[in-house]
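Quick check before the chapter quiz. The format below is the same one you will see on the exam, so make sure you can read both the input and the output lines.
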Amino acid sequence: MSNVVITTRVRLARNLKNYPFPCKLSAQGREEVIEKVRDAVKNSNSVLADDFSFIKMSEVDPRRSVSLVEKRLVSPEFISDNTGRALLLSSDESLSIMINEEDHIRLQVITKGLSLEQAYDTADKLDTLLDENLDFAFDEKLGYLTQCPTNLGTGMRASVMLHLPALEKSRAISRIAGNLSKLGLTIRGAHGEGTEPKGALYQLSNQVTLGISEQAAIENLKNITLQLVAQEEQARERLCQSMDVQDTIARSMGILKYAKLISHDEALKLLSNVRLGAIAGLLDADVEAIDRLMTDVEPATLSVSAGKNLTPQERDTERAKLIQRVLH
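Here is the expected output.
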């Protein structure tokens, strides 16, 4: 399944009773919310508590802030204003809690492959841990109260990161997107709303949070994902029979192995081709290593790894070197 589904993410939005939403929260109020959430994790009996590091966003280097977005650990909105915001991040970066983003709490779990039940179970445990020490804003009819009405109810957004080169090549994505919206789902670029897909990476997520249980939303997303996976696999089988496509895949590997300069967009395009070739048995390459590269070649993440700000050309040089180290 990881041939098509790269990662699964489950995110829960929660707010504290007796505090305005972050957009109306005073500086003192923001600090109080940060301390309450931090203490709720720190003082819990869970083994998870010791695994979190506490990060005040006002003290984070701008390069690292952008890198957190590139890794999909926080939202672009979260780093747009770092005052009165904090992050709790697990050592393996699979769990994160944004404090004072659009809502007081945005907790998320990221797992490999198609693992919606596992991701939700972990998110639910983390939610329960917080709920034991915090008083969440909840209404019997509306469910969890959130700043944006579209998150009312469960407050849950579940999503899967898909690699869909064959469906993209056959121009089926726009038709699929139209059908998905009727089913309460949406498909977007890898970084969510308003982002263009690059490297044939797409994010499929639920839209409906009110009047539906978490389990029903998870089940719906899983069923549609399995249908998309089947369509992609069938399309790949046809696509990879083409000698032109096989040539493109081979040339992509050649460029990645020997180019001295590689831009971000070119790297994602070529890595997408090589990933397709590796899964189809046309190339000998480590798919998990390619998946990691798709994040590691991002501009800010490269600069963080280098420990300094890089010029665009320096980034292109470092990106080429990194790819060669991994693929050779």
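If your answer matched, good. The CA atoms of residues 67 and 170 lie 32 Å apart.
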